[in-house]
Design goal:
Layout (H helix, E strand, L loop, with lengths): L17 E4 L21 H8 L6 E5 L10 H10 L4 E6 L7 H10 L3 E5 L5 H8 L4 H14 L7 E6 L9 H11 L3 E4 L10 H10 L4 E3 H18 L5 E4 L4 E5 L12 H9 L12 H9 L4 E5 L9 H10 L4 E5 L8 H10 L3 E6 L4 H8 L4 H15 L2 E7 L8 H10 L7 E3 L18 H9 L3 H8 L9 H7 L4 H6 L18 H4 L1 E2 L16 E2 H7 L7 E2 L3 E2 L4
Parallel strand pairs: 1-2, 2-3, 3-4, 4-5, 5-6, 6-7, 9-10, 10-11, 11-12, 12-13, 13-14
Antiparallel strand pairs: 8-9, 15-16, 17-18
C-alpha cells in the first residue's frame, strides 16, 4: 500500500509564520524527533501551503533535513513566488561542512538560517543526535557559512532544543554565539512540557540584553520586523497610500528588457536566481482590505506587469471589488499587439505609465539592454491609445541619455502624448554601489545637459521632477536665472529628509540628507537634499551654500 503524503499545513492562526516540513530523509537521528514516514515535499505542496498567507514568513525545516531535500532550490523559489514575506531555513548544519553546499545555500539568499547545535561539547551533542561526527560537521558547517557572510548575507542563529540531557547549555551556547558573532540563540519550545521553568529564565536573560529568545518570541518578531523593513525599503508587495487613496502593488513577472538601472535585474544577479512569477490570487485579501479602507485606485508596478499571464484576472478582480481605476507601469512592449491591449482594456485596465529612455532606438535600446525595445515601446503606446487606455510617459535620466532629453520631449509631444509626466534620476537599491557607477549621472552633468537646450525647454524639463531630485545650490550653480523657478515649486516632502519621519512606506529608499554646509545656505529650507549613496559615489564638492544677496558662495 503506497504511503500517504503528509501535506504541509500552516501552523495555527496564533503562530505568525507558515511552517513547512520538508519530509524525506535526515542525516541525524535525534532523540526528540518523531519523524513521520513521508516522502520529500513537492514544489506544488509548498505553493499550496504558502499562497493563502502572502507576506508571512515561511520557515522551511523538519521533520526531514532541508539541505538533503533534492529540490531545495526550487522549494525556496516556490515559497517566494507564492508570496513569502521572508524565508527561514532551519537545518542541523551538517551538509554545510561541504563548501559547495554552503555556497549553494548562500546563493539562495534566505533571510535567516537557523542551525541546530544541541550542546557546546561533542559528546553531549551526539548523545542527542545519536550520530557520530555530527558535532564536528555542524561546527565546520557554521564556519563555512560564516565565511561567506557579506552584503545581503542571511542572519545566522543557533537553535537549542531543551531536554534533560542539555537544558544547562544555554550559557555555553550564548558564549559560542558571541564568540562567532552570530545573531542570537533560539531556545525551541522553552515553554513546552518538561522544560520546567526555562521560559522565565530565557525571558530574564533577554531582558538583560543577551541575544536569546524562545522560538515563540523569535517567530512573533519575524513578521513585524520583516514587514516594517520591507515597507521602509519600498519593497512590500502591497503598499497602501492613504493620502492618495491608492494601492501600489508589485507584481513579479518576466521582462524582455534588462535596463541598466533596474532594481529587479540587480536583485536577480545578487540572488543568482530569476525573479519568480506571483500567483495573483495571493493579493486578493490585501486588495479587499485596502478597498474597505477607502482605496479607490490601483497601480500595478514592476516587474513588467502586462506580461504576467494572469494580470488580466488581477485587473478584473480589482474592478469587481470597486477600484475606480487600475494603472500599469510598463515598458509597453507587452502591448505591441493590439489584441493584448484590447484584452487588458476589457479586463478593466484604465491607464499605463511608460518609461522612455532615449529619442532613438540606439539610445533607448542601450539603456533598456534589449534590441528592439524602442520600436516595441512606441508600437505598444500606439496600441494602448487605440484601445482607449490613458497613456503617460516618464523619462528615466541616466548618463547615456542626457543629450537625448530634448529629443525625447519632442518625440512624446509629436506622438500626441503631451509633456512627460515626470523625469526620474534612479537611486541605488543595493548596498553595493558598483553596478550604479555605469549609469548614475552627477547632478552637475544633468544641469550641464539642460544648459545645451533652449531655455524654455530646459525649464519645462526641470519642472517635471528634476527640481525634486537636484539640490538648489547645484541648480543655481548652472544658472542664477533658475532662482524664481525654485521658489515657485514645492520641494520633496520634509519627511524624506533625514531629520524627519521614517514611518511612511518607501521612506528608506527616498531618504535624503542635506550637506554639512546647509546651515549657511539661505535656501536650506526648500533644498531637497540628496540620497545617502550620492556622496559615497561622487563626494560633496558640488554642494556650496547659496546667499540670496551675494549669489553662490565661491570656494576659496
Amino acid at each position: 500500500m503506497p504511503r500517504r503524503k503528509q501535506k504541509p499545513a500552516p501552523a495555527p492562526a496564533a503562530r505568525p509564520v507558515v511552517a513547512v516540513a520538508v519530509g524525506g530523509a535526515c542525516n541525524n537521528a535525534c532523540v526528540f524527533c518523531r519523524r513521520p514516514d513521508s516522502p520529500p515535499l513537492t514544489v506544488e505542496e509548498v505553493v499550496e501551503a504558502v499562497r493563502g498567507f502572502p507576506g508571512l514568513p515561511v520557515v522551511i525545516g523538519g521533520p526531514g533535513e532541508p539541505l538533503i531535500h533534492p529540490q531545495l532550490d526550487r522549494l525556496v523559489h516556490a515559497a517566494r513566488r507564492a508570496g513569502a514575506g521572508s524565508v527561514v531555513l532551519v537545518t542541523n548544519g551538517r551538509m554545510l561542512a561541504s563548501g559547495s553546499v554552503a555556497r549553494r545555500v548562500a546563493a539562495l539568499k534566505p533571510d535567516i538560517v537557523v542551525v541546530s547545535l544541541l550542546a557546546s561539547r561533542r559528546e553531549r551533542h551526539e548523545a542527542v543526535t545519536r550520530t557520530p561526527t555530527s558535532f564536528d560537521q555542524t561546527v565546520k558547517g557554521l564556519g563555512n557559512l560564516l565565511a561567506l557572510r557579506g552584503d545581503g548575507a542571511p542572519r545566522i542563529y543557533l537553535r537549542l532544543v531543551p531536554l534533560d540531557e542539555n537544558r544547562d547549555q544555554v550559557a555555553a551556547l550564548l558564549a559560542f554565539v558571541r564568540h562567532e558573532r552570530l545573531d542570537g540563540l533560539i531556545v525551541d519550545d522553552a515553554a513546552g512540557p518538561g522544560c520546567r521553568g526555562m521560559a522565565a529564565g530565557i525571558e530574564a536573560l533577554r531582558a538583560e540584553g543577551h541575544p536569546v529568545s524562545s522560538m515563540e518570541a523569535f517567530e512573533q518578531a519575524l513578521r513585524p520586523e520583516r514587514w516594517a523593513a520591507a515597507c521602509r525599503e519600498g519593497m512590500a508587495p502591497v503598499r497602501v497610500l492613504p493620502a492618495e487613496r491608492a494601492v501600489s502593488l508589485v507584481l513579479r513577472s518576466g521582462c524582455r528588457n534588462a535596463c541598466l538601472f533596474c532594481t529587479t535585474r540587480i536583485v536577480q544577479e545578487e540572488r543568482a536566481a530569476l525573479w519568480p512569477h506571483d500567483d495573483v490570487t495571493a493579493f486578493h485579501e490585501d486588495l479587499r482590505r485596502a478597498r474597505a479602507g477607502g482605496a479607490r485606485s490601483l497601480r500595478i508596478v514592476a516587474v513588467e506587469p502586462v506580461e504576467h499571464p494572469q494580470v488580466d484576472r488581477l485587473i478584473a478582480f480589482a474592478r469587481e471589488e470597486g477600484y475606480a481605476s487600475v494603472e500599469a507601469w510598463t515598458s509597453a512592449r507587452g502591448l505591441a499587439e493590439e489584441t493584448r491591449a484590447r484584452t487588458l482594456k476589457r479586463a478593466g485596465l484604465t491607464a499605463v505609465d511608460v518609461p522612455l529612455m532615449g529619442a532613438s532606438a540606439r539610445t533607448h535600446d542601450l539603456v533598456a539592454g534589449s534590441r528592439g525595445a524602442f520600436d516595441d515601446t512606441l508600437r505598444g503606446l500606439r496600441c494602448a491609445v487605440k484601445a482607449g487606455l490613458r497613456c503617460k510617459v516618464h523619462f528615466i535620466v541616466v548618463r547615456q541619455n542626457l543629450d537625448d532629453l530634448l529629443g525625447m520631449a519632442r518625440l512624446v509631444e509629436k506622438a500626441g502624448l503631451g509633456a512627460p509626466g515626470s523625469l526620474l534620476i534612479p537611486s541605488p537599491s543595493s548596498a553595493d554601489l558598483e553596478p550604479f557607477k555605469a549609469f548614475m549621472p552627477r547632478y552637475g552633468e544633468v544641469m550641464a545637459a539642460l544648459g545645451r537646450f533652449p531655455r524654455r525647454a530646459a525649464i519645462g524639463l526641470l519642472s517635471r521632477g528634476l527640481l525634486n531630485n537636484i539640490p538648489a545650490c547645484v541648480i543655481l550653480g548652472a544658472s542664477d536665472g533658475y532662482g524664481e523657478l525654485l521658489e515657485r515649486f514645492t520641494p520633496v516632502r520634509e519627511s524624506w529628509i533625514r531629520d524627519g519621519s521614517l514611518d511612511e512606506p518607501g521612506a528608506a529608499l527616498k531618504l535624503r540628507k542635506r550637506c554639512a554646509k546647509s546651515e549657511a545656505c539661505d535656501l536650506a529650507g526648500i533644498c531637497v537634499g540628496y540620497h545617502d549613496h550620492y556622496e559615497r559615489l561622487f563626494g560633496p564638492d558640488e554642494f556650496m551654500p547659496v546667499r540670496k544677496r551675494t549669489g553662490r558662495e565661491r570656494k576659496p
